[in-house]
């Protein structure tokens, strides 16, 4: 199918926070309670429409624990958006956000749009990280923030689409260098 | 003598009743050996000119029974009764004059110990010019031919079974000539019921040459050590130290192969706890690699097969001795494998390579999981067991600790094995260069899945000289860091799906399409294709260096002589240039 833009996303965050489940919910609209642990990177894609333009999202779902750093660096190559995910029921996954953010900033374009995601919002009873803490972290680091549930699909569409909107906005504002092939591999209006 | 169903070779041990320490060992084919033959051979083996009484010694519980053998029927019954024993044990009583054996070498065949090695066959043929009845020689040759052909039998369809397995142990239970068994495993797999035993040997759990009793003791000792280490980190005062590690491992254990019936159990089940304990203990004992994601995928099949936590740990440790490099942060082993896989695609399917180049997938990063897990996750669990066996059987047991190592360690062993079983089999068949076992494999696998017209089926050297930049492949010692077959499995998947690859417009959709094939690849097709490609590669190595595996037999010198595996390059040049093609080296 033809598309106007191609955005590459990367999903990062600690192991077991639900990265693969978010992707599966977004691409296949289903939830798998026991998902294989991701080795290396897995790939997904979906077409969305923004401002009546077809945009293809290419999504790279990475392993939470990566033992091969040189491949990790390649993940970021050309990424226009990143979903940085933590688990609201596990404080440690929130505590590690700074490290993930440093890694992302180091290996990606400074214009990459980063969406902070507090996942597993359906598990309110087991919540360890308050919503306000997520909001505050996002504000402090210039990220967009959202709490999602890959299980109930709450906010999953929004998380992916809002990130795309933000990228699209940056293109319209001329913030992104559209000649930078790294960010936009397809610049044809079809 | 009528056929003795399914038994191709029987190892016979004959002792003199008067002197039980005077023993001869040899092998007969029960399908063609008559009582008269046996009688004659024993006479010759002991240099006995007069009459004998032959009896079959059969252990029955604690008692030892003797049955006199006087006819073909008796012999056949004795063979059948011994089907589960390492030997057909015979005792002979001399009823007449006995000739004391002398030191001369005029008896070759039957004075050897253990089963005749395949590699001995040619020399046997030469030495047999000594005064032995030609009829006997022919019979013995036939027998030996049948035995050896069991290892290279192109029509064989069945996996390694109990009779093959048991026939490869001596009377004290030492494994003999495992390479012959591994050829069977490589080509046809292992009966699932035998895996528990066979895998321990395939994984080199035991030091070489242990008797059955010693192996049991060894395993017991290993298990005791395991339980001690496990107990030490499970102590209350020690637990806090390993909390992050245990959290990480548990997170992965509870999502490892949970759809497979063995692990389709509640989280609290002992099987999950065992897998968890194994991985934590390994991580504590191996701080250089500790725990990394993917290890649970490698350990799970071992637990399913061994059904014993401590034994699984021992097997896992030996498996990880080879695989831990996949998980080291320096990524060197993985980088090498990516590079070599790229080379293989470039060499075997230039068109596919060009396409991968076009979509910038020539780094092969999309095969990361395949390589880290030796493709375990690409197949249904039960099929993955076949894949793992095939990979392990293509590797050789490590040498004794004091043996010299090649610069790349394990790679030396692999090639050694290739050399051992292929060149040995070759020679027995009168081939000078091609590894017959693999050639027969190609024939055996040249089935409905593949036609000779496959454009990639033949490795055409000229194609590489004329159309593409000359590609040099590392030798089998170095290809894939000493595990070349895994790369050929990857190559097979890519080639079998080349049309799918061509239909994907970009890297992401290409990688994504392979992700959708997780646990869905056809193991039989992939194995078959991989063996075919592997055999082409080995054959090509042979064309390049056709001096009867000189390069394979002397890997150390090769490594010293030429860096960057240039032997392949150099020789390819020769071949290509002789055909008048312009090439660039």
Automatic annotation (TrEMBL), chain A:
GO terms (BP aspect): protein transport; vesicle-mediated transport
Entry's Gene Ontology cellular component terms: Golgi apparatus
Subcellular location as annotated: Endomembrane system; Golgi apparatus
A GO molecular function held by the record: GTPase activity
Keywords: ER-Golgi transport, Golgi apparatus, GTP-binding, Lipoprotein, Membrane, Nucleotide-binding, Prenylation, Protein transport, Transport
Keyword Protein transport: yes
Bilayer disposition of the protein: Lipid-anchor
Family: Belongs to the small GTPase superfamily. Rab family.
PANTHER family: DRAB11-RELATED
Protein name (Swiss-Prot/TrEMBL): Ras-related Rab-2
Organism from which the protein derives: Paramuricea clavata (Red gorgonian)
Organismal lineage: Eukaryota, Metazoa, Cnidaria, Anthozoa, Octocorallia
UniProtKB/TrEMBL annotation, chain B:
Alphabetized UniProt keyword annotations: GTPase activation
Transmembrane segments: none
Coiled-coil boundaries: none
Top-level taxon of origin: Eukaryota
Listed InterPro entries: Rab-GAP-TBC_dom, Rab-GAP_TBC_sf
Record Gene3D superfamilies: putative rabgap domain of human tbc1 domain family member 14 like domains (1.10.8.270), Ypt/Rab-GAP domain of gyp1p, domain 3 (1.10.472.80)
GO molecular function terms listed in the Swiss-Prot or TrEMBL record: GTPase activator activity
Record Pfam families: RabGAP-TBC
Signal peptide: none
Name of protein: Uncharacterized protein
Protein species of origin: Paramuricea clavata
């Amino acid at each position: 199918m033809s598309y106007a833009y191609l955005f590459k996303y990367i999903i990062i965050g600690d192991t077991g926070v639900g990265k693969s489940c978010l992707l599966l919910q977004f691409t296949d609209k289903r939830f798998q309670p026991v998902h294989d642990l991701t080795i290396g990177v897995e790939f997904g894609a979906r077409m969305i429409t923004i401002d009546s333009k077809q945009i293809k999202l290419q999504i790279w779902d990475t392993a939470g624990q990566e033992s091969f750093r040189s491949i990790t660096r390649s993940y970021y190559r050309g990424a226009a958006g990143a979903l940085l995910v933590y688990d609201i029921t596990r404080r440690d996954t929130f505590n590690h956000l700074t490290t993930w953010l440093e890694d992302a900033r180091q290996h990606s374009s400074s214009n990459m749009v980063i969406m902070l995601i507090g996942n597993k919002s359906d598990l309110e009873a087991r919540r360890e990280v308050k919503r306000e803490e997520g909001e505050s972290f996002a504000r402090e680091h210039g990220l967009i923030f959202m709490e999602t549930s890959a299980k109930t699909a709450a906010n999953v569409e929004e998380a992916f689409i809002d990130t795309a909107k933000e990228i699209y906005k940056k293109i319209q504002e001329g913030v992104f260098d559209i000649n930078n092939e790294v960010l936009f591999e397809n610049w044809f209006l079809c | 003598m009528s056929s003795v169903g399914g038994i191709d070779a029987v190892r016979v041990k004959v002792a003199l009743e008067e002197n039980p320490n005077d023993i001869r060992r040899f092998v007969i084919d029960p399908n063609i050996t008559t009582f008269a033959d046996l009688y004659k051979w024993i006479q010759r083996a002991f240099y006995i000119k007069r009459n004998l009484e032959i009896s079959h010694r059969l252990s029955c519980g604690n008692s030892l029974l003797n049955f006199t053998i006087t006819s073909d029927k008796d012999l056949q019954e004795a063979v059948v009764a011994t089907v589960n024993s390492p030997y057909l044990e015979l005792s002979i009583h001399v009823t007449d004059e006995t000739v004391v054996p002398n030191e001369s070498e005029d008896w070759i065949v039957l004075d050897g110990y253990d089963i005749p090695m395949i590699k001995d066959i040619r020399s046997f043929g030469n030495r047999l010019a000594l005064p032995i009845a030609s009829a006997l020689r022919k019979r013995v040759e036939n027998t030996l031919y049948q035995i050896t052909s069991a290892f290279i039998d192109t029509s064989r369809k069945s996996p390694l079974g109990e009779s093959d397995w048991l026939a490869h142990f001596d009377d004290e239970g030492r494994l003999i000539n495992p390479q012959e068994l591994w050829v069977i495993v490589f080509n046809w797999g292992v009966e699932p019921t035998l895996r528990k035993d066979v895998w321990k040997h395939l994984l080199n759990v035991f030091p070489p040459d242990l008797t059955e009793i010693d192996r049991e003791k060894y395993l017991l000792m290993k298990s005791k050590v395991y339980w001690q280490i496990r107990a030490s980190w499970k102590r209350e005062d020690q637990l806090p130290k390993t909390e992050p590690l245990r959290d990480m491992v548990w997170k992965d254990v509870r999502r490892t192969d949970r759809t497979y019936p063995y692990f389709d159990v509640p989280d609290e089940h002992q099987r999950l706890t065992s897998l968890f304990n194994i991985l934590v203990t390994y991580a504590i004992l191996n701080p250089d690699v500790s725990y990394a994601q993917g290890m649970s995928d490698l350990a799970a099949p071992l637990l399913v097969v061994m059904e014993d936590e401590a034994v699984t740990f021992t097997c896992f440790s030996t498996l990880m001795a080879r695989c831990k490099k996949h998980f080291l942060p320096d990524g060197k082993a993985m980088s090498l494998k990516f590079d070599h896989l790229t080379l293989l695609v470039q060499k075997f399917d230039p068109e596919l390579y060009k396409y991968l180049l076009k979509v910038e997938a020539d780094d092969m990063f999309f095969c990361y999981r395949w390589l880290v897990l030796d493709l375990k996750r690409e197949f249904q669990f039960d099929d993955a067991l076949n894949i793992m066996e095939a990979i392990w059987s293509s590797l050789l047991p490590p040498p004794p600790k004091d043996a010299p190592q090649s610069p790349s360690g394990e790679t030396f062993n692999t090639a050694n094995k290739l050399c051992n079983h292929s060149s040995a089999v070759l020679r027995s068949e009168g081939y000078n260069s091609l590894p017959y076992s693999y050639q027969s494999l190609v024939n055996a696998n040249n089935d409905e899945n593949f036609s000779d017209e496959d454009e990639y089926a033949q490795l055409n050297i000229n194609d590489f000289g004329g159309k593409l930049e000359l590609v040099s492949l590392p030798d089998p010692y170095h290809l894939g860091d000493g595990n070349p077959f895994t790369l050929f499995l990857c190559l097979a998947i890519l080639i079998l799906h080349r049309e799918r690859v061509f239909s994907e417009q970009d890297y992401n959709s290409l990688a994504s399409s392979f992700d959708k094939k997780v646990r869905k690849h056809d193991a039989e097709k992939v194995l078959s294709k991989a063996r075919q490609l592997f055999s082409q590669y080995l054959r090509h190595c042979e064309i390049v260096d056709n001096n009867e595996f000189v390069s394979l037999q002397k890997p150390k010198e090769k490594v010293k002589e030429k860096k960057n595996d240039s032997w392949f390059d150099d020789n390819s040049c020769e071949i290509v240039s002789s055909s008048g093609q312009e090439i660039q080296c």
